Amino acid sequence: MQTQRQNLPFEKIAVSPEWCFKNVRSIEQWTHGYHRYPAKFLPNLVKKLIEDYTQPTDMVADFFAGCGTTLVEAKVHGRQSIGVDINPVAELITNAKINPIDPKKLEAKFQNLIKKFDDFDPKDYSEINLHDRIDYWFSPRHKYKIAFLYEKILSLRDKTAREFFLVSLSHILKNCSKWLQSSTKPQIDPDKKPTDPFIAFITHTKQMIKRNKEFYDKLTETDFLNTACEIRLEDARQTTLESGSVGAIITSPPYVTSYEYADIHQLTAYWYEYITDLQGFRKNFIGTFYSLNQNTTVDSTLGQQIVNQLLKKDKRKAKEVANYFKDMQAVATEMHRVLRTDGHTCLVIGNTTFVGVKVKSAEVFKEILESLGFNMVQVIKRSIPHKLIPTIRDKKTGKFSKLKNKDSKLVYPEEYILIAKK
């Protein structure tokens, strides 16, 4: 294993096999598989970071909680944890994943729910007033069934059970819509035959019930069932976490202009009325070109060099990257504030290339952390055989592509784990 103390350029650091977890499908364990989510944090990676860099008494934080992988693993390990995410869909998914339900009570609620399917009459929903984009993605027949399911789930008094079933319904929306199944980008598949919502809901909920029981039994056995675990709907650039309250930060920031999370989760966001305006929703996210800022000055010396190179080739892309670096400077500052002295921050991030310019995000992160007073303990390089991200980008346009495209290239074959200490 190579460390930063050897002062090697990042690209020359050897891949560490023990951090690659080849042939490991740990997303199937516990509640990790409740809901699809792009660029999922590999649970085994989080597990190792918790075991190597935290103490049992530490509060573990994730500034980009996403679907809650860090929080679930922290609870399994008996660590108190707290996560923040700006996406209400992420908040919903995480709440369901970190709050296991008594298996017998959950099964009873599920049976009562599916008994209500006999009461479904599409005529009851033919006049329902929904956002126009729902009609764009769903046929009337499927829309009525989803509306029925949503209504019956919302009528549940138990908040934890209600969130559990809402997550199951959210997960199946893509399958039941015209959305191109293999794509993370919103596009219609004219040949798709969407799955029946009732069948999809029952099938996926049964899988979730099975995982809930495993998680509940494990936490009961270890006496970690009531270990504090919380997700907050907040901006990582400005949280409500108390200064010096966190023992360790384990997180994977969004890759620069990699994903438009608002677009990907729009089906749930529209159905659950989290949004009415997708464009406005997009602007709140870090690493999105929708929050375009005209200022291309950044605090990082290396970051500024990268932006300057991009300005010569693609001014729009330069502005996007500059905006991303400035956002991450704000996040790193917030991390330093909430972390206790001697606490560790573990950041997982990868580099990419736009219009022939190497965007060395990991190196920029290192520079930002050190400028804030963090001491770099170690830089680990790992290959990412299972991380759920598109890895092909067109060299000319910078857009994600397919390998058969002659202008395509791999963009995220590896990533870095930065271990820094306050």
- Tell me the fraction of residues in β-strands, as a range: 5-15%
Query: How large is the radius of gyration?
Result: 22 Å
How many discrete structural domains?
Answer: 2
- CATH architecture annotation name of the largest domain: 3-Layer(aba) Sandwich
Low-confidence stretches: 1-6, 386-395, 397-411
Distance between the termini: 22 Å
CATH topology term of the largest domain: Rossmann fold
- Could you report the average pLDDT, rounded to the nearest whole number? 89
CATH class of the largest domain: Alpha Beta
Order of helices and strands: HEHEHHHHHHEEHHHHHEEEHEEEE
Give the overall shape. Answer: globular
Protein model, in words:
The structure is a single chain. This protein is an alpha/beta fold and 422 residues long. It has two domains: 1-84 and 227-251 and 286-422, 3-Layer(aba) Sandwich (Rossmann fold), CATH 3.40.50.150; 101-224, no CATH class. Helix content is 39%, strand content 14%. The strands form three sheets. A seven-stranded mixed β-sheet has the order 3-2-1-4-5-11-8, sandwiched between helices. Strands 6-7 form a two-stranded antiparallel sheet. Helix 4 packs antiparallel against helix 8, helix 6 (140-154) runs antiparallel to helix 7 (159-172) and helix 13 (315-338) crosses helix 14 (361-371). The longest helix is centred in the middle third of the chain and has 26 residues, at 197-222. The two termini are 22 Å apart.
Give the helices and strands, then pairings.
Layout: H1 43-53, E1 59-62, H2 69-76, E2 80-85, H3 88-98, H4 103-115, H5 132-137, H6 140-154, H7 159-172, H8 197-222, E3 229-233, E4 246-251, H9 261-264, H10 266-271, H11 278-282, H12 301-311, H13 315-338, E5 339-349, E6 352-354, E7 357-359, H14 361-371, E8 375-383, E9 392-394, E10 408-410, E11 414-421
Helix pairs in contact: 1-2, 3-7, 4-8, 6-7, 7-8, 12-13, 13-14
